[in-house]
Write a structure and sequence with these properties.
A hairpin with a 2-residue loop joins strand 7 and strand 8. The protein contains eight helices and 23 strands. The chain has 444 residues and is α/β, with parallel strands linked by helices. The termini are far apart.
Amino acid sequence: MKKIYVLGFMGWLMSHAASAQKDNVGIGTLEPDRSAVLDIQSSNKGLLIPRMSVVQRNAIPQPANGLMVYQTDALSGFYFYDGREWKPLGQNIPEAKATANVDGWLLNGNPNATANSFIGVPSGVPLQFRIGNSRIAQLSTTNIFIGAASGGAITTGISNFGLGSNAMRITSTGSHNFALGSLALNSNISGSINVAIGNGSMLNNVSGNQNVAIGNNALSSVVSAGNNVSIGLNSAYKNLSSNNTVVGTSALYHNENGNSNVALGFSSGFFKEGSGNIFLGTNAGRASVITAESNKLYIANTSTTTPLIYGDFSAKFISIGDVPVAKRDAIASAGQYGLLVKGGIMTEKIKVALASTADWADYVFTPEYQAKMLPLEQVEAFILKNKHLPNVPSAAQMAEEGLDVTQTSAKLLEKIEELTLYMIEMKKEIKALQQENEALKKKE
């Protein structure tokens, strides 16, 4: 039987000898194409290449580049080895595999997916998504960045979230930041615990910590300052300092170096520089040019320089009403009064506290004071000359200096007590005269 096989094989070789001499082989033809090593021709049969499962295919040792098989399971079809992985023929069809693994994801889904299926990368390697050569998203166990160039320089920073083109673009060591919007925290390198929501919010921050900026261009200029809260379009736009709380479009816009300010309301404190100020209301304390003020209070709904309520924290002074600036400032700087009200006060009750018992008029009943009391004749002469009681302010003084409730009440009581003493003395004199009159009557 072996002799028959050998003779058959020798016959086949001889029948194809002419073809083999031309460095190519033809099957079904005596004239194989010159460009083909093997030319197979048939009108009723095909070429059958090795058929195998995914497991068998992947078990081929050191597959050559271009090696081809027919895969019989999973997504069946012709596959070739490109030097790195097995790929299906016909990459443009919707069902083309994204990986050579039977459990890999297809471009139109994975029919083999289970509850434990996932898309992932090895531990410690960020998962990236790209368009061309441009990375548009990077996900890791410590940071999430979505957007062109977002988080492109991250090194040791952790717990960061960036969403938007160039959001946290050059952040490397900063941690616990939240940036939402194009160019949000764009220049941040080491700043941490910041929240920037809005296009250009905290645009120039490099190392500032614990800031909150919500609104396009909010806190746009801050570089290294911290503990600011800025909510509103262009709010605290030029701010470079710390501990400011700003709510309102363009509020505290021009304040660069001031700290510990509070501005609440559209454009409040717009042109104001300084520290320790409070601006409450639309345009409150706005001014018309950049003005330096510190430790002031403005409560208003316009940009007036005489707001409904004005305060000076340094002088511990408050004015209420449309008080002229010059008068208001003069009284505040004098330091005598803490409250100035224009237009009067209406109340159901008022209580004035005395600083000490010396401010009340009980001293009138001491012998020392009574010894100095003027006789009624001298009181009469003083009244005729001065048109007011002794030791009592005149009408002119009251108009110029105002009325001190405590002092005036004490003076009025002083005169009442003096009058009481005069009446007691007169009563004694009248009684003595009555007794003397009765004695004279008895002698008659």
